[in-house]
């Protein structure tokens, strides 16, 4: 029988945002999925966390939301390869590759809530990706949070993600607290770095990986298995 737990998070200056978690008491135990080390010759270190209770960062009803795109240790590929860490950029194979994809893009729907995987401090919020003019030219943003053991970048969120919740750079956030809204890209771009980083770092083709960079794949795979997933219910957001 399923058990339902409602998590009410009080937001500064706004009505409470109610999220519902549904878990099966008889759900089978899922085995840990191992990510492959990439690139093979000089693998980027995996982001590591000593926090035992994490939240999946996207609050959505989409069934494939927790399938993190990844190259796995067993040689298989999970999810869309071009959304995985170390995939080529630009993604278009007809164009010359200039850099590597330093994050993992998670399935989401436009308007889905983004929550902090762990407690931490907001260390930056800035313009991240501008969508093509043909689809409206929306300017998306990135939220960077210093968690206990690493910095996480939650990218491609709406410009009002912080202000709509009364948040600002420097604020402390709780694990599972809403920190953003997915933009028109309909995905959450995630990156991880060593503690102290306050901006994303690009990885040009032909260059060694930046020493501060961490591969978020294993962290996401573990969170998908053992983390807490929240589902939307009666979400009231400030006007866009």
Commentary on this structure:
It is built from 1 helix and 17 strands. It has 240 residues and is mostly beta strands. The longest helix is centred in the C-terminal third of the chain and has 10 residues. The chain is globular. It starts with a strand and ends in an 8-residue tail after the last strand.
List its salient traits:
disordered N terminus, mainly beta, 17 strands, disordered C terminus, 240 residues, 4% helix, 32% strand, 3-stranded antiparallel β-sheet
* Uncertain parts: 1-28, 234-240
Largest sheet: 7 strands, antiparallel
Mean pLDDT: 87
Globally, the shape reads globular
* C-alpha end-to-end distance: 38 Å
Strand content: 25-35%
User: Quick one: how many beta strands?
Assistant: 17
Helix proportion of residues, in percent? Answer: under 10%
Instruction: Please trace the helix and strand order, writing H or E for each element.
Output: EEEEEEEEEEEEEEEEHE
User: From the alpha-carbon coordinates, what is the Rg to the nearest angstrom?
Assistant: 17 Å
Q: Count of DSSP helices?
A: 1
Structural class: mainly beta
Pfam families: Peptidase_M23
Signal peptide: 1-25
Protein name: M23 family metallopeptidase
Keywords: Signal
């Amino acid at each position: 029988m399923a058990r339902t737990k409602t998590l009410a998070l009080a937001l500064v200056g706004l009505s409470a945002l109610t999220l519902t978690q549904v878990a099966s008491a008889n759900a089978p135990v899922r085995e840990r999925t191992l990510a492959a080390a990439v690139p093979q010759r000089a693998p980027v270190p995996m982001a590591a966390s000593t926090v035992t209770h994490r939240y999946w960062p996207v609050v959505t009803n989409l069934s494939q939301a927790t399938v993190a795109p990844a190259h796995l240790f067993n040689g298989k590929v999970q999810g869309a390869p071009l959304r995985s860490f170390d995939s080529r950029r630009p993604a278009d194979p007809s164009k010359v590759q200039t850099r590597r994809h330093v994050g993992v893009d998670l399935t989401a729907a436009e308007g889905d809530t983004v929550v902090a995987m762990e407690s931490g401090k907001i260390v930056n919020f800035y313009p991240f990706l501008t969508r093509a003019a043909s689809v409206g030219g929306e300017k998306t943003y990135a939220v960077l949070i210093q968690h206990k053991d690493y910095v996480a970048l939650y990218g491609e969120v709406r410009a009002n993600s912080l202000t709509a919740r009364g948040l600002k750079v420097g604020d402390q956030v709780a694990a599972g607290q809403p920190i953003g809204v997915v933009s028109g890209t309909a995905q959450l771009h995630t990156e991880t770095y060593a503690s102290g980083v306050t901006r994303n770092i690009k990885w040009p083709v032909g260059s060694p990986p930046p020493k501060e960079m961490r591969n978020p794949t294993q962290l996401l795979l573990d969170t998908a298995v053992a983390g807490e997933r929240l589902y939307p219910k009666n979400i009231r957001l400030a006007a866009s």
